[in-house]
Design brief:
single chain; alpha+beta; Uridine Diphospho-n-acetylenolpyruvylglucosamine Reductase, domain 2; Uridine Diphospho-n-acetylenolpyruvylglucosamine Reductase, domain 3; Enolase-like, domain 1; 3 domains; four-stranded antiparallel sheet; 14 strands; globular
Length: 290
């Protein structure tokens, strides 16, 4: 199939792209990697009057590590997350999750910002960014603003982006403490498929092995990534396996699991509970070994 007719623009500067967004607003779609937008246009699920191709805006492709934090331009390709040593050092959760995003061909073209702005509920990167407490830098012709990752995702394919705004950069803070660890787990039907359910976690311990920081995100099971409230029960405790399993079950009970042709809501909730416990367990073990 072919997309509906549209006007095409290829700006070379961020300001030029923002001016186009300000002029065309809801009529425009931003093209980054195109791994989601192009198929949707070809199937005519979306019919933008204007396509703004960002691939010539070099400023959006920067990847920097600064004082333990990681700054990712929206156009950083997903394969850079698995291959760049700066990512593995500053945000190892991203390096672990990246190889599970589609296939190599997908990651070679797909962008970090594109995945986040698309907000697919089964995508790995939105969940990881929430677990890492990342900050998104949004720009428009009006004024720049920031948004925490946990506030950015608003439901199925919905975000906090205004029609004239662009997700320009993602700021990922360094580990929350010297003894910090991460965990990631997902279930897919085949390698490269979207997750039927998944979980990622970041956990930090003090010198006595007591939990001082815990963030757990479940994805793929509901209409968007879910930051679990149940992890508050871990603070001030030593993360024993039985306790982690209990928190995993409580976290899964928080989500409004969806049903589709791939899985029932009950299956997703049960699998999410096990994956949550597994991700927390890996994070606790890594924190203890740090």
């Amino acid at each position: 199939m072919r997309p509906a007719p549209f006007d095409y623009f290829a700006p070379r500067a961020v300001e030029e792209a923002l001016d186009l967004l300000a002029r065309h607003r809801e009529e425009a779609k931003v093209l980054a990697g195109g791994q989601s937008l192009v198929p949707m246009m070809n199937m005519r699920l979306v019919r933008p009057a204007v396509v703004i191709d960002l691939n010539r805006v070099a400023a959006l492709g920067a990847l920097r590590a600064d004082a333990g934090a990681l700054r990712l331009g929206a156009l950083v390709r997903q394969h850079a997350l698995e291959r760049d040593g700066r990512v593995a050092a500053a945000a190892p959760l991203l390096a672990e999750a990246a190889p599970l995003i589609g296939h190599l061909q997908t990651r070679a073209r797909g962008t970090v910002g594109g995945s986040l702005a698309h907000a697919d509920p089964a995508a790995e990167l939105p969940a990881c960014m929430i677990a890492l407490d990342a900050v998104f830098h949004l720009r428009s012709a009006r004024a720049p603003r920031t948004c925490r990752a946990q506030d950015f995702f608003r439901g199925l394919l919905a975000t906090a982006l205004e029609p004239d705004e662009l997700l320009a950069e993602i700021e990922v803070p360094g580990p929350p403490a010297p003894r910090a660890g991460h965990g990631f787990a997902e279930v897919v039907r085949r390698h490269g498929d979207f997750a039927l359910a998944g979980a990622c976690a970041v956990l930090a311990l003090d010198a006595g092995g007591v939990c001082r920081h815990a963030r757990l995100v479940i994805f793929g099971a509901g209409d968007g990534p879910h930051l679990a409230r149940a992890t508050a029960a871990l603070l001030g405790e030593r993360p024993a396996a039985a306790r982690l399993a209990e928190v995993g079950r409580a976290a899964a009970a928080e989500i409004d699991a969806r049903a589709d042709l791939h899985a029932t809501s009950e299956y997703r909730r049960r699998v999410a509970a096990g994956l949550a416990a597994r991700a927390l367990g890996h994070a606790a073990a890594r924190a203890a070994a740090a």
